[in-house]
Amino acid sequence: MSPLLIEIYVFVLAGFVGFFVITKVPALLHTPLMSATNAISAISLVGSLVLAGADRGGVATILGFLAVTSATINVVGGFIITDRMLKMFKRGDKKEKAR
Amino acid sequence: MNPRTVFIEAAYLLASVLFILGLKSLTVPDKARHGMQLAAVGMLVAIVGTLVNHEIVTYGWIMAGLALGTVIGWPLGTRVPMTAMPQRIAISHMFGAVAATLVGVAEYWHLGNGARVESAQMAALGFEVLFGALTVTGSFMAFGKLQEFLPSKPVTFRGQNLLSIAMFAVGFGLFVWLVVDPANPAAFYAMVGLGLLFGVSLVLPIGGADMPVVISLLNSYAGLASSATGFAIGNNVLIIAGALDGASGFILSIVMSKAMNRSFANVLFGAFGAPPPPSEKTSQGLTARSITAEDAAIQLAFAKLVIVVPGYGMAVAQAQHQVRELAQLIEKNGGSVLYAIHPVAGRMPGHMNVLLAEADIPYDKLREMEEINGEFKNADVALVIGANDVVNPAARSDKSSPIYGMPILDVDQAHHVIVLKRSMNPGFAGIENELFYAENTSMLFGDAKASLSRLVHEVKQA
User: Fold this and answer.
1) What residues 57-86 of chain A have any CB closer than 8 A to a CB of chain B?
2) Given B181, B210, B245, B389, which residue is catalytic?
3) What is d(CA B117, CA B122) in angstroms, rounded to the nearest whole number?
4) Which residue in B156, B179, B449, B459 has the fewest CB atoms around it within 10 Å?
């Protein structure tokens, strides 16, 4: 099977998994969901890293550097802010016990 | 397959699994934090895996980029206040799209400006830079509108939709041309430029209250651009993560559109232009009753059930902490307090929930619209804080209203409704709200934060 076909398989199946998992996320957590998926899709950092380090000439390296910077902003900022938000969601009964 | 490739692929597979588990954990609020920490570990694994890639020969620029990104990303994660979350998310869509677009452009340039690009790869690259470019400028526009350095009112002009459609058609035409004949740098860079312009024209006519849909849609595009990057460079973890992001943004856009009873097309191309003339009904000399903080406090102090309805006004006034203080006083008096959250209250999906959680309000008291609507008839007081369109009964009854058919919170069924509002100015799109003139409604005018502080003070006295 050609690599492209395999990639299409992966894309379609991942899309289904995403659809079924995410439809179950309650509206309560829609903002953290958005920041979480944003942080996760900053995985494009992986492509940027290769670009910045593969020594394909000045233009590619500079574009790679900028891409690494942008993606890293989302990785670092995205996971931190998601955690910061999720930390705030507490149940009422648990909080009573903690006091 | 050499050991290095096996290691890299294993790292990517592990990362993909952890990403899916992380998103799955978001279905259970108590487990969400732990799950997302695992996803962050997955990201680290993928990065470490990539760094041993044989193609990487120099680490200088990589380290510089990682360092600079961390320096910028850290305060964006730790410092940005929860009230600024919508613009924070909008700008992060831009960063994600910038990365995807640059990788696409560099890849095309590197492969002899398309000379060594096959049609299939060109299709992936084309998607990548087209979606990437329009998300870059679209997200920046959304950021500007939310941060209010750009007008948050819809900006419209004659022939706007025609221009947008024409740009899209030409962009798509160039895309098809490139797939047939990839070695065509002029067409490629023109397509990137057109994508950037299209992003601007897409968001320009969209008003503040429609932002939840647009942010969700841009979220989806940023994901699809990442996924296309995966296709272009043959990397599965990018395809998977991008597909998850794309699916998430798509679902949220649908949820948001449904909550406004509008189609995508209507949100994107049917901007509420000039404010419609005030509807006949409200011009018939009806007057709203205003109430003093003292009288409102008495109602609240003796209420058994109070339902708080927060809206964008609460976010603007940053009044969530005062809301909690008031709720605690009511609870001390033996009443109970619930919160009714409309899906499009605020400027992004889940905006109100985050603000209330920040103020230490337990999440089990935050109720979704379908869940709470039956409760309003039992509520002694419905306290509307800076919400307008989402509580407008015209959505149920007035066929001429632009928001007719939109599901709303049935606050008018509560025994008393107290509306905290700055003035009688109609809200977004100038739609009059009958609720404010209803028999059982009283208006408490002023800044939401100041009004709530006065209420807290008065309830203590009562």
Assistant:
1) 57, 59-86
2) B389
3) 6
4) B156
pLDDT digits (tens, 9 = 90+) for A1-42: 688 899 999 999 999 999 999 999 999 999 999 999 999 999
- Closest C-alpha among B281, B369, B365, B379 to residue B328: B365
> Which tens digits make up the pLDDT trace of B353-398?
999 999 999 999 999 999 999 999 999 999 999 888 899 998 888 8
- Select from B25, B37, B98, B368 the residue whose CB has the most chain A CBs within 10 Å, as the one to mutate to test that interface: B98
Q: Which two tokens stand for residue B441?
A: 């409604």
Q: What is the ipTM, given to two decimal places?
A: 0.93
Specify the CATH number for the domain of residue B434: 3.40.50.1220
Judged against a pLDDT cut of 80, whether residue B67 lies above it is answered with: yes
Distance CA B79, CA B89 (A): 14
Within 10 Å of residue B125's Cβ, how many Cβ atoms?
29
Of B231, B253, B274, which residue constitutes the final position of a domain?
B274
Q: Look at residue B274 and tell me whether its pLDDT is greater than 50.
A: no
Question: In terms of domains, do B99 and B9 share one?
Answer: no
Which residues constitute the domain of residue B419? 280-461
* Percent of chain B whose predicted confidence (pLDDT) is above 70: 94
**Residues B218, B113 within the same domain:** yes
